[in-house]
Amino acid sequence: MLNIKNLKANVDGKEILKGLNIDVKPGEVHAIMGPNGSGKSTLSNVLAGRDKYEATAGTITFGGKDLLALEPEDRAREGIFLAFQYPVEIPGVSNLEFLKTSLECLHAYQNKPLLSAVEFLKLAREKCKLVDLHTDFLKRGVNEGFSGGEKKRNEIMQMLMLEPKLCLLDETDSGLDIDALKVVADGINTLRSPDRAFILITHYQRLLDYVQPDFVHVLSDGQIVKSGGSELALELEDKGYSWLESGTEQSANPLKV
Amino acid sequence: MNNLKLVTNDFSGAQRSQKNPWLQGIRDAASERLRVLQLPTRKTEDWKYLKLEKLLANDQLDAQSMQELDSKSLEDIDELLEQSFIDGLDAYRLVFVNGVFVSQLSQHDSNPYSVLFSAASKAQQQLIVDHLDTSHNYYHDYFSSLNSAQLEDGLLINIPKDCVVDKPFYIVNLTIGEQPKTSMMRLLVIAETGSTATIIEHEDAPLKHTGMVNTVIECFVNDHAYITHSRLQLDESVTSICSHRVRQSAHSTYQQHQISLASKLKRNDLTVALRGEYASADIRGSFYGRHQQSIDNHTCMEHIVPNCTSNEVFRGLVDNEANAVFNGRIHIHPDAQKTLAELSNKNLLLSDFATINTKPELEIYADDVRCSHGATVGQIDNEALFYLQSRGIPKAEAKRILSLAFIAEIVNQLTDDNVREFVSQRSSSLFTTLQPEGAK
């Protein structure tokens, strides 16, 4: 489904990703872990197509298409969803309008029938309930005045609405209390299916207690330095990242950072 | 420029109106002022950001060119006109075409509050003469004097003491006709003590005909009166100059919502004089300019007595090569202690070639007041743009959504649901005709 080969990427002229390889098949859940500054967020931003993140070498194919040639909106229409690390507040645009426009854009592209206003509203309310957001949130501005946890739950709510093929979650678990973390995990587990894949970018093991990954990759200095099964995450939790690469100075237990 | 001078010199003699002789005193006084007043130039501080000579060159400042539409041509466009009114609005509808009242299009049965100057009773005539041109007793500008000097008719809204008017006044002025023409609009609102009313003004050009409107509005808001005034300037093809003066007495409230589309030239001068203690003025406005349009909003809050409040918020959107000006002045006179005055103007530039000149001005002669002002000019937030794009919304559509969101704060405050819906739809459709860069 997603194939990344020897990806190199710059941010503001500085090389952050230095030859990254990853292969994601439908149904798989991949966790990408790594210390701060290892390139985790750069990877998610390059995949979503953010402006100042520039791929300088390598290829990314998604469903057989050259992802790097697509505009951000077309990547979304092809089925990629990025849950933002820092969702932006957009006053003046209600969540409801925003979701409706987004869903219409995706459905039109994917030749799916458009929902009626009533169907749409019913669906939106249902998904709100799943992530424990009051339906009043739908009328408010996008993320406007939301707490950190509410913003993250709103990202999951959008993911549930849009039903993407590939879900990228960029540190969605950071800054969440245990209840919100469970809500996020439930959202992911609800969507898990044989034709959908996930990439969970995270600093900690915490989320992986609730979402069992098929693969864990350790990213360090712009490259995957180690891959393994879910047991690798536990090992990282235990030993920190420093044993992987002597050059990086990391606390033994990243939870204490 | 030469043309213009000819026209304006001419009218004071030969083209002077003979209608409604009881208004002759008003016309004479204005003609007298015009002998001294000059057409503003770029050297006039209040007009320096507009190329007035150029913008006005093809428009006549002469009211005589206005003409009534005959009933045949009215019938032809009847359906179109019906569509251009705000849907579902239950109001006293008073329709003017090119500044001339059109009874067939109006719905104002059982409206005891408003009357045309030409139909005024003796007592009303006296009321009109006592109030016209007195709202602003130390300053007369060129264009409002021109309006007064050519005054033939106008609309008086007089709300009796303690009366709460059951529905809004909906005043529509349509510019229609192939030949560019100038129409004069004159509105006089006198809200007696304790009265409450809503006024919705709607300027439009349903056939996108060009023309010019020179409007003068005077509002007298007496003690404890409460006036809500919406001004919808949706005529992109019409040059418009409007002088709008409000005079407030003690404990009165004046609320204005202004939604303006720019045109070749659109100029609004709003002056609110707070002359009675505990009066409160709340002014909200948004403007949108595109192509080579110009829009200029000058506002002035005159705090003359203590304990008054004024709050002013303007939002501007400027695209393509349009030029917008906002000048917000707060003038706090020596006696006006305990004044609370706030002013905010935020602008969004949608193109590299658009211009906005914004200037908040505070002039404070009292020492115990609270004043704040702020003006910003920015661009569309790239983070927000990317967020929308990452949800499958094309860049052009995302820009449209964010532009509308910027003025939504003002539009959403329109108190009447039907008006708000009408404005939302109009502004939304306006943006769909845009083709911003990156559109597919």
Q: Could you describe the 3D structure shown?
A:
The complex is a heterodimer of chains A (257) and B (440). Chain A is α/β, with parallel strands linked by helices and 257 residues long. Chain A has a single domain, classed as P-loop containing nucleotide triphosphate hydrolases (Rossmann fold, 3-Layer(aba) Sandwich). Helices cover 32% and strands 28% of the residues of chain A. In chain A, strand 9, helix 6 and strand 10 (197-202) form a beta-alpha-beta unit. The relative contact order of chain A is 0.18. Chain B has two domains: 2-380, no CATH class; 381-440, no CATH class. In chain B, helix 2 runs antiparallel to helix 7 (142-149), helix 8 (382-389) crosses helix 9 and helix 9 packs antiparallel against helix 10. The longest helix of chain B is centred in the C-terminal third of the chain and has 17 residues, at 395-411. Chain B starts with a helix and ends in an 8-residue tail after the last helix. The model of chain B is unreliable at 1-15 and 434-440 (pLDDT under 50). The chains are: A alpha/beta (257), B alpha/beta (440). Chain A binds chain B through residues 48-51, 71-73, 75-77, 81-82, 84, 87-88, 90-93, 97-98, 101-102, 105-106, 109, 141-142, 158, 162, and chain B through 381-384, 386-395, 397-398, 401-402, 404-406, 408-409. Chain B: InterPro entries: Fe-S_cluster_assembly_SufBD, SUF_FeS_clus_asmbl_SufBD_core, SUF_FeS_clus_asmbl_SufBD_sf, SUF_FeS_clus_asmbl_SufD, SufBD_N. Chain B: It comes from Brumicola pallidula DSM 14239 = ACAM 615.
